[in-house]
Amino acid sequence: MRSHAWLKVNELAQKSSSLKSAPHLSGDSVRDLYDALAVNYDADTRRNDYDVWVAMYQRLISRYGAPGNRLVDLGSGTGKAAIRFAASGYAVTGVDISPEMLRIAQARPGAERVRFAVADLRRLPDLGEFDVAVALGEPFDYLRNEEELGGALRGVANLLAPGGLLVFDINTHGHYERFSRTLSVDEREDMLMIWRGSRPARDGKGADLRVDRFATDDGTTWRRSAELHSWSYFAPPTVSRLLLATGYAELHTYGLFDGELNASVDEQRDRKRIVVARKPEPPR
Ligand SMILES: C[S@@+](CC[C@H](N)C(=O)[O-])C[C@H]1O[C@@H](n2cnc3c(N)ncnc32)[C@H](O)[C@@H]1O
After folding, report:
1. pLDDT in the model for residue 204
2. Residues 6 or more apart from 195 whose CB is under 8 A from it?
3. Which of 83, 94, 197, 278 is deepest in the core (most CB within 10 A)?
4. Mean per-residue pLDDT, 104-129
């Protein structure tokens, strides 16, 4: 049975939809999307446990080894992971397409230990050389097709030192199937969000997420805005092929289920895959 709170939210959504001034649907590009939602990102992701995520990535880095401690965090967002990596001794550069996300990152305690740079993963500039590259929290899933993912992998390979390690997460097929049926509400005192997942019109793979956000300063007047996230699906053989084509040796792909890393992947059950690859040393 639906809760009373949900019914009220649903009515509110229907009323707002019929208002003359339709809500602005940002999402023309990932940069616009994240610039618009940046001020809310930390509150929206308040339940994510970055200590656990960063510790998991660090365990993988230690397990496979890296030539040094220069780390680039790809799609670093508001810096929650980047700052934790820096606190545990890495020399960190955080890269993101959204200047607003990075503005918030730079205001975080500990940000002075991180270098932040605005850059697009699809066209990475020369940011120096790194021993480790990480991408956590799904930045690669925002890339629209194989060409873009291949471009990103190639760009990262150009930044890695010989023997450098790449660790990234990517969503599973099962996650998208479940997520595309999501309808949920996140309620805070001054904000109410409706999350609606769907299959993307683009290719029927991956998932779209529309977030309708109602915010208030005084509890009386509510402003509505909307965001559209579009995630692509990259199957395991596609990722393996692109890694090979862009010069990596794939070391291992883990499955992530219920927060636990598993040595084998269950593409239906698992939430994500965690891919570990290396830029090989040139032959002597
Ligand atoms: C879900 S957020 C994750 C942020 C951060 N890694 C975390 O875990 O909190 C995805 C991030 O990827 C960034 N992103 C998406 N596409 C990108 C691209 N092509 N180039 C650079 N950053 C990108 C977004 O701006 C956003 O900050």
Report:
1. 73
2. 182, 183, 184, 185, 186, 209, 210, 211
3. 94
4. 97
On whether residue 284 sits in a domain, the answer given is no
> Mean pLDDT throughout 143-160?
97
Q: Is the model's pLDDT at 2 over the cut of 50?
A: no
The C-alpha atoms of residue 38 and residue 131 are separated, in whole angstroms, by 29
Beta carbon of 77 within 6 Å of any ligand 1 atom: yes
Question: Domain total for the chain?
Answer: 1
Ligand 1 neighbour 136 (Cβ under 6 A):
yes
Q: How confident is the model at residue 149 (pLDDT cuts 50, 70, 90)?
A: very high
Predicted confidence (pLDDT) per residue in 223-275, tens digit? 999 999 999 999 999 999 999 999 999 999 999 999 999 999 999 999 999 99
User: Whose C-alpha lies nearest to ligand 1, atom 1?
Assistant: 137
**Distance, CA of 96 to CA of 101 (rounded, Å):** 8
Does the CB atom of residue 32 touch ligand 1 within 6 A? Answer: no
- Determine the structural domain holding residue 100 and report its residue range: 50-172+233-278
Asked if residue 21 has pLDDT above 70, the reply is no
Q: What pLDDT, on a 0 to 100 scale, did the predictor assign at position 185?
A: 95
What does the alpha-carbon distance between residue 207 and residue 237 come to, in Å, rounded to a whole number?
19
Say if 214 falls within a structural domain.
no
* Most ligand 1 atoms within 8 A of CB, residue of 29, 50, 104, 142 to mutate: 142
Cβ neighbours around 31 below 10 Å, total: 16
Ligand 1 nearest atom to the CA of residue 137, by list position: 8
